[in-house]
Amino acid sequence: MYKLAVVPGDGIGAEVTNEALKVSRAVADVEGFTFETQEYDFGGERYKRTGETLPDSAIEEFKKFSAIYLGAIGHPDVKTGVLEKGILLKIRFSLDQYINLRPVKLYPGVWTPIKDKGPEDIDFIVVRENTESLYVGIGGNFKYGTPDEVALQEMVCTRKGVERCVRYAYELTQKRNRRKQLHLCDKSNVLTYGHDLWQRVFKEVGKEYPDVKQEHAHVDAICMWFVKNPEWFDVIVTDNMFGDIITDLGAMIQGGLGVAAGANINPEGVSMFEPIHGSAPKYAGKNVINPIAAIASAGLMWETLGQPKAAARIENAIAKALGEGHIKTLSAGGDKSTTEIGDLIAKFASA
Ligand code: IPM
Ligand code: MG
User: Fold this and answer.
1) pLDDT on residue 333
2) Distance, CA 279 to ligand 2 centroid (Å)?
């Protein structure tokens, strides 16, 4: 019996969460496990009503769950940054979810903007450090608003933070057992302190994984290679800021944010699963958005929670639904509604 804390969040979050849970129930039934959910209404509406983003008590409560499932955060009436920092980043940081796992996988039947590349070329995974770098929120403004203003935004890399992330990436590369190749993505030619630490740790930890081939690419070059030669990649490890940026590019080459899944993992604690996409407020409540990214994120959840067969069922069901042409378009307002896509994938996943 698993216990899930569910935060549907804003905009389309609730709709995609429903489908992710629907598919989860279907696979749990056939695989013979159960889960119960407890819903939390954190998000823009609650913030507008109460002025509260996410109280510390919620973090304490979350620690009692097997996992957190989150739909989407972001509200048009709330100043940018408030909900992102107050909810999303607060959960990631407080629960020390130091790995942000983002698979970039082109499913069969999905259109990619990269000419002449297919599912066999686009199948890699980004391991993004999830608690440090420019995200730590250290800095400030001096002489604010004056012509003499100074603004500082510090980038923090710690030995512990880098090492545990790099180690996770090596382990994953071994376990994935594909090309057994790990790329470090950094900007060590300019960030000669922080990313020098990444370089040293990457090489040092790599000695423990002699079967994993070490590769390196600067972040600007990786953007170029994602587009030109995506087939070169197996696993990529990178810092928080660059991981944020390159995974949006990754999402585009895999067919868009509609299929891009994500996981915020604390291997020793409580993890959170969420699609990479935002809350798309203009489509909210219309049953038109495709929930595949959310469903795939639930797949990552079951994988992480020790139900690999359930995860494989979800993965195969998505591949079948897309590969056999049951879903013609991934953009909002395609041939199938949100609930129809959820029903279809639930059916395939439990077959
Ligand atoms: C993501 C998002 C978040 C991030 C924002 C909403 C704070 O872009 O999950 O990639 O930058 O991590
Ligand atoms: Mg992002």
Assistant:
1) 86
2) 13
- What's the CA-to-centroid distance between 326 and ligand 1, angstroms? 31
What is the spatial distance between Cα 299 and Cα 277, in angstroms, rounded to a whole number?
A: 16
Q: Check whether 71 has a pLDDT greater than 90.
A: yes
- % residues pLDDT > 90 (the chain): 98
Q: Measuring from atom 8 of ligand 1, which residue has the nearest CA?
A: 244
Residue 294 CB: number of other CB atoms within 10 A?
32
- Reported as a pLDDT band with limits 50, 70 and 90, residue 328 is confident
Q: Is the CB of 88 under 6 A from ligand 1?
A: yes
Number of C-beta neighbours around residue 127 at 10 A = 26
How many A from CA of 207 to the centre of ligand 1?
32
What is residue 307's predicted lDDT score, i.e. its pLDDT?
Answer: 98
Q: Domain segments of the chain: what residues?
A: 1-100+262-351, 112-254
> Dihedrals φ, ψ of 6, to 5°?
-110, 125
Ligand nearest to the backbone CA of 130: 1
Rounded Cα distance between 159 and 330, Å, is: 41
What is the model's pLDDT at position 274? 97
The CATH number corresponding to 1-100+262-351 among 3.20.20.60, 3.40.50.11540, 3.40.718.10, 3.40.190.170 equals 3.40.718.10
| Residues annotated catalytic, as ranges | 135, 187, 220, 244, 248
Q: Which residue out of 79, 87, 88, 90 has the highest number of ligand 1 atoms within 8 Å of its CB and is therefore the one to mutate? A: 88
* Tokens 């609930």, located at residue: 339
Query: Are the beta carbons of 73 and 13 closer than 8 angstroms?
Result: yes
**The predicted structure's pLDDT at residue 219:** 98
Ligand 1 proximity of 84 Cβ (cutoff 6 Å): yes
* pLDDT > 90? residue 91: yes
